[in-house]
Amino acid sequence: MSSNRALYEQVILEHNKKPRNFHEMEDADRKVEGYNPLCGDHFTVYVKLNGDVIEDVSFSGAGCAISKSSASVMTMLLKGKTKKEAEGLFLKFHTMVTSSPDSPVDEDDLGKLRVFAGVREFPVRIKCATLAWHSMLSALDGKDESVTTE
């Protein structure tokens, strides 16, 4: 196993063990539930906006290490971003995890999200990694309906 891959796995396990922004947000402007029936991941994403800027974002629920750590990293990266920046980050992330395992990863462009590059080697785990992100997009779009990976 490469040292980078081992480091990435450590980051994922750390975010699973001690997820950042893992709490319900009582004063959220928007909240959306996300569910992955294949893995059993079930999260609620909370977003508080100040105009077009994500002032705060958090999540609650339960899921596998990939889904929980992805939600944790997502919340860290999105605070202070505009809706447009958040959508752009989602697109970069989604493109990376759905690309071929041998595709190069633009580490400068993806930053901390590159730790999820290994997910593309396990296609069934892509839904785990993207669940919170799809829920966040739905919240930013002002949709109240639940998001599912099916």
Entry summary:
The chain is globular. The protein has a 4-stranded mixed sheet, with helices on one face. Helix 1 (3-17) packs across helix 2 and helix 2 (65-78) runs parallel beside helix 5.
Name the average pLDDT. Answer: 92
Largest sheet: 4 strands, mixed
Rg over CA atoms? 14 Å
Counting structural domains, the number is: 1
**What portion of residues belong to β-strands?**
15-25%
Question: Can you count the beta strands?
Answer: 4
* Number of helical regions: 5
Widest sheet: strand ordering: 3-2-1-4
Structural class: alpha+beta
- Which range best describes the helical content: under 10%, 10-25%, 25-40%, 40-55%, 55-70% or over 70%? 40-55%
Task: Briefly note the CATH topology name.
Answer: Sufe protein. Chain: A
Distance between the termini: 32 Å
CATH architecture: Alpha-Beta Complex
Contiguous low-pLDDT stretches (5 residues minimum) are none
H-E order: HEEEHHHHE
Just give the CATH class: Alpha Beta
What characteristic shape results from the CA principal axes?
A: globular
